[in-house]
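Weekly modeling sync, notes
Attendees: S.R. (lead), two postdocs, one rotation student

Agenda item 3: backlog of single-chain predictions. S.R. asked that every request posted to the team notebook include the full sequence so nobody has to chase files. The rotation student volunteered to paste the first one in as an example of the format we agreed on. Action items at the bottom.

Example entry:
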Amino acid sequence: MNRNYPLLRLTPDQAGKLQHDFNRLQANHTELKAQLAALEQAMRDLYGTQAFLALRNHARNQAQAALLKQEIAA
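Predicted structure, as returned to the notebook:
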């Protein structure tokens, strides 16, 4: 499928601000991923791998169910 997106025209100031915002968000994302990995490892150590995996699967299923409810309600 071919899509033609319009060219984004920005002033140098706008482009600089957009790049700065992107870099800041990317750094925050990287930090959050590291924190999540540390939290998951701590939970594995505390509860055991099987319990951690069961808890994570249960949480994912609950989140998907909530999204499905929202879609049905819309």
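Discussion: group reviewed the output briefly. The mean pLDDT is 94.
Action items: rotation student to repeat for the remaining queue; S.R. to check formatting next week.
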